[in-house]
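Bug: token stream looks shifted between consecutive jobs. Job 1:
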Amino acid sequence: MAKLNKRIVDQAGPEKSDYFLWDDELPGFGLRVFSSGKRSYLVQYRAKGRTRRFTIGPHGVWAPEAARKQARILIGRIAQGDNPAETKLLDAKTITIKELCTRYLADCEAGLVPGKGGRPKKPSTMEIDRSRISRHILPLLGNRRVTEITSADIAKFLRDVANGKTRADIKTKKRGRAIVRGGIGTGSRGVGLLGGIFTYAIREGIIEKNPVHGFRKPKDRVRDRRLTEREYRALGRILADAAIDPQFSTAAKMARALAMTGCRRGEIINLRMGEVDVQRSCIRLEDSKEGASTRAIGLPVVELLEPLLSDDEANFVFPGTEEGKPLVGFPKLWEKLVKDTPLESVTPHVLRHSFASVANDLGFTESTIAALVGHSRGTITSRYIHTVDTALVVAGDTVASYIQALLDGVKFERANYALDHSARKDAMRKFLTAAVSSTARSVDHLSAKDHPDTS
């Protein structure tokens, strides 16, 4: 057989069974002619004592000379010990991103994939993960092989989500809708989830390298947002008007609680009566993002929550319209409250960030702020898991009172009152006066016992 060229390939017609035409100039390079008439270029070689064939591609897609060049490359790799046919077979068996995500979610639900702090992922976190996977990851990467994904694919995923390529309006229930908008923040959090999924894939022996490692995600600008003092006063006016409207009165109280505690939205929505400790000025959350968490709350928060409490500790502090359930519709009510106002872009999470920022303005340290808002630090914060000390209560009082005053329209000349000498002296004077009075009463009581009235 002579050198394979276009004339010879075009003349090769079908027969009753498949047959091969081999190139004389490049040993191992050939053409397979199928009984159907289809023709395909290939390389035949021996590896591990077996004859192996690797298909380059069909004639028409590949021209003879292009196929010959590819064959030379393959034969060179084979000479160095590669086995392209086996590699191709392994690649074909590699699972897709969709299959990997299915395995990942199943193991998460079984508690086999540790979440934050080594704890199993919470149901609410799982719901968010499922949403990000089904609405962003699978549409863009679902059919790709896991081993094929590179950092460039991660960058394209982020860009596509940010540009709204996964934007959708999905019907979820009989009357429910899920509006998927995308954006930089959504894309960045999607990349974060992909990083966790690929880490799981490494643990399972599916891949050796995480394509997300070293990838720099853009900063989510929402997390830099905080309320100015003018915006606090504007929010106070909105909440004051909402408090007298039966539709929004409970949501207004919840918004005040969020603003004056720095709690997460879900922590206030799901707050139960038994988790509020009025006497010790704290809330003891049985389950939060960081697990069980005890937070100091300021006196304004105590005064807000105390009238709402009852003897049934299992009841929700902010009940919804459906018996035995909290006001889960708070996010939509919040959107209605701030719609068409200068605060329309403000989310409940901004209240949390603003609380921490105000605490910082007032001179409190990072560890104190972390304890107030329930951040996991693993050092100082861990001391406050079960108890709340006086310093934290004072910090809670200071920050909550300052924010309450802003909501009530107060304009402060300066913010750093934590180290104000006159205020500290006044507070200490009151404390010592109370202590002296208490001691005097104790002395009088003991004196009366030692010298009873005999008249």
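Job 2, same session, no restart:
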Amino acid sequence: MRVLLDTNVVLDLLLDREPFSELAQAIFLNVESKHVEGFLCPTTLTTLYYLLGKHLDKKQCNQTMENLLALFETTLLTKPVLVDSVRSVGSDFEDSVIYTSAKHTKIDVIVTRDTTGFKNSAIKVMSPQEFLIFVDANS
């Protein structure tokens, strides 16, 4: 199963945001153990680097990015993806880019704490808790 993690889920783990970090950690463990194939949108990586830079030094940011890139694949982010994102943008362009990138990469599930940002999605959208229940039921 190809799973894209929204930026908020990754931040939950990296910034240890309670009470969400435990669920994010469980999802990361599913990716690490290869129960699911994990993906991040390239825009997530740039956003993470920027936000982590407020908490970590450059060396720590770089190491965190290397760790994420070793664990996750990235979705496609090409000019056609961006054009499609602009044409289908709802209330949030960032969510539109993440969704359209996921669609072009043939992602099966988007995991996010902001499911309303993907309300018209043709891709299955789940909260972290829903996703973990789903994975457990299908293992």
